[in-house]
Each structure stands twice: as C-alpha cells, then as structure tokens.
C-alpha cells in the first residue's frame, strides 16, 4: 500500500464505523463530511466497498419486492396477544 493510501486509511473511520454509516445512508441523508469519509475509505478498503454494494443491492430488492412479499405473507396475532398488547399500552 502506497503512502497516500496509508494516510487515507489513517484519516478515515474504521470499517465498523463505515458499515454503520453505509447502513444509515439508506435511511437518512448523510452530511457532505460523512459522504466524503465513505468515499475515501472505500478507495482503500475493498471489503467495505463490497459491503456497501451488497447492502445497496439488498435494499433495492426489498424496495422493489417489499409490497409483493407483504401481500404473500399474512401475519395474524391471536386474540390473547392483542389483549396483552392493549393492556401494556394502557399501562404506559
């Protein structure tokens, strides 16, 4: 790894922090600084670049097929569970 790559790696957040930011990018608009950090880190880290790509693919697939999946899966809560939830909500 060249000196400039080592400097970029040193200046950017850890892979753990980058995975968190990549996930948050799907839910909220990142600041310019956060976007820059992701971009710089991905220049030196193949694994985070792959993770972000996979995350975006999964997110897009869920967005495209989410309604179809929701229609196919019928989830019902037994009356006992509904009553218990209502009781818990009243207590708060």
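Q: What amino acid sequence fits the structure above?
A:
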């Amino acid at each position: 790894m060249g000196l400039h790559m080592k400097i970029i790696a040193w200046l950017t957040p850890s892979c753990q922090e980058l995975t968190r930011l990549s996930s948050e990018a799907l839910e909220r608009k990142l600041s310019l600084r956060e976007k820059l950090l992701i971009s710089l880190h991905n220049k030196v880290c193949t694994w985070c670049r792959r993770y972000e790509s996979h995350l975006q693919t999964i997110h897009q697939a869920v967005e495209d097929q989410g309604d179809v999946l929701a229609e196919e899966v019928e989830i019902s809560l037994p009356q006992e569970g509904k009553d218990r939830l209502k009781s818990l909500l009243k207590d708060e």
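Q: And what stands out in the fold?
A: The chain is about 80% helix and 0% strand.
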